[in-house]
Amino acid sequence: MKQFRNNVIRAGLGALYFTGAHYLLRPIFAGVGAIFMLHHVRPARDAEFQPNHHLEVTPEFLRAMLAHLRAQDIDIVSMDEVHQRLLERNFSRRFACFTLDDGYRDNRDFALPIMREFKAPFTVYVASDFAEGTGRLWWIALEMAIAGTSSIETGIGGAAVRLDTSTPAAKQAAFDRLHDWLRRLPGDHNMQREIAALCARYGVDETAICRELCMSWDELKSFANDPLISFGAHSITHRNLAQQTEEIASREMVVSRERIEGALQRPAIHLAYPYGDRIAAGAREFALANTAGFKTAVTTRPGMIFAESAGHLTALPRVSLNGNYQDTRILPVLTSGAATAMWNGFRRIDAA
């Protein structure tokens, strides 16, 4: 099902490009700017089974996007500048802002050198438990468990289930089923229990994943010396905030910020909601972020930034630079706003 969806999106992006429709739609849907969302930036991998491939782009694709933006004379700005322009209603020039979620080491090793080439600022949203080396990147743990076995056993809905994982296609189908099931479980503790059981059964060290992929506080301190970099909060544990009590959700936001500011001696006045979709961030979370004193908060809801976004600073949409669609021909489609307009039902503001 997800492969079918990817194919439909790819076809839609291609149709917008080949018909030139994005040129016609740009004056309506491009807005005043865009906040781009990334996670990993690293060289392409050869493995056939890569269910989290959408979360990574190659350095070459990032460089192509930056070159496209410079060629279009679009300002590349920080989240602080996005906030200021929205408050001042300074829309004389279009802008682009780059944000990278989680705090992966490849942000330093591969993204930073390219951003330096273009003198482009960017914001890294840090989940503080990831920097501590104790975080749980369950989506990667699930990938590793499935990658290492020809069948996988678990319990879904109280029933024991054995899933075929003997081929890349079967592995992808199993991953999609288990991923969707885990996201729907009530409460973070249920997800962690099931993931822990899978990791124990299939020999995956979940905390080692965090230490291998994410920058530590010491690494982040060194990273923070570059003037292009700013930091934002991404919760403590990267849990679905909408599933938590108001008290816990608020603590996830506030304590994450306190830990980042204490460790790095840098402000962390911007927030990215973990997962950030409709089932993880809604009106309550937007209000909590505002109460916690964040100047902005970003979702994963697709969309461009419009003048009206100034009234919804803790519910800002982003444009995903998605690893499944790394075709340089679609760059003008992404910056036109045509693609996100189609994905979000042609809404300028989606903050409900």
| Mean pLDDT rating | 93
Radius of gyration (Å): 20 Å
Q: What distance separates the N and C termini?
A: 27 Å
Strand content: 15-25%
CATH homologous superfamily of the largest domain, by name? Glycoside hydrolase/deacetylase
What is the percent of helical residues? 40-55%
Largest sheet: 8 strands, parallel
Question: What is the strand and helix layout of this fold?
Answer:
Elements: H1 2-19, H2 21-29, E1 33-38, E2 40-41, E3 56-57, H3 59-71, E4 75-77, H4 79-88, E5 95-102, H5 105-117, E6 122-126, H6 128-132, H7 138-147, E7 151-156, E8 159-164, H8 168-184, H9 188-202, H10 206-213, H11 217-223, E9 229-233, H12 246-264, E10 270-272, H13 283-291, E11 296-302, E12 316-320, H14 331-336, H15 338-343
Parallel strand pairs: 1-5, 1-12, 2-3, 4-5, 5-6, 6-9, 10-11, 11-12
Antiparallel strand pairs: 7-8
Explain what you see.
- This protein is α/β, with parallel strands linked by helices and 352 residues long.
- It folds into two domains: 261 residues, TIM Barrel (Alpha-Beta Barrel); 70 residues, no CATH class.
- Strands 1, 4, 5, 6, 9, 10, 11 and 12 form an eight-stranded parallel β-sheet that branches. A two-stranded parallel ribbon has the order 2-3. It has a two-stranded antiparallel sheet with strand order 7-8.
List keywords for this structure.
single chain, 352 residues, alpha/beta, TIM Barrel, 2 domains, 8-stranded parallel beta sheet, two-stranded parallel sheet, 15 helices, 47% helix, 16% strand
